[in-house]
Amino acid sequence: MIKGRIHSLESFGAVDGPGIRYLIFLKGCNMRCQYCHNVDTWNPETDNLMTADELLDKAERFRSYWGKEGGITVSGGEALLQIDFLIDLFRKAHERGINTTLDTSAQPFTREEPFFSKFNELLKYTDLVMLDIKHIDDEEHKKLTGHTNKNILDCARYLSDQGIKMWIRHVLVPGITDKDEYLIRTREFIDTLKTVTKVEVLPYHTLGAYKWKELGIPYKLEGVEPPTEDRIQNAKKILEFKK
Description:
With 243 residues, the protein is α/β, with parallel strands linked by helices. Helix content is 33%, strand content 21%. GO terms for molecular function: 4 iron, 4 sulfur cluster binding; [formate-C-acetyltransferase]-activating enzyme activity; lyase activity; metal ion binding.
């Protein structure tokens, strides 16, 4: 029986997919984003192990709030690191008629086996992918996260080719992602994708900085302030749309 390594659960999410969502946050992430506000999800170890049925039984207690569009959203950490569990969870969710959203940065994506076949199996039961593009420039992406973005952008292209509905999210960080050159390149890339129905600009904030201190990890963006309203609106003008 497959069990997921669970970080936390939220019963009423209004911004993590269509409608009202039951949010499942999984443990483990390979990226080390300098602005991460869930740094406590990096370590995959946890005492909170749950099966798909246990999670769905909990989620369905709130089904009356979901309306026609709501359902479950699985986030992290990086949910794709637990792809076997995800397949089991999303397959059983679909058997119960529950809408599924995957919130991912796609860092584990590869067209190599065995991951690629598992990813294709997961897509059979995935209604929406919310893809977080950290940085459009590969070298800057490596500085920001410790990893390349080449496979992440390849994942976006593949999802588009497979007809998978996508929302794109992009965190606006002064001095890092908040440059018109990068924003325009990001929009140009998004425009090559056929299945993106929404783009969201997420302004950088420091609400998770205390977690770094609690875990004894130096906060790389100490002193960086959130973007100004003018820069937020500029980024939204360049990036955001909704079909």
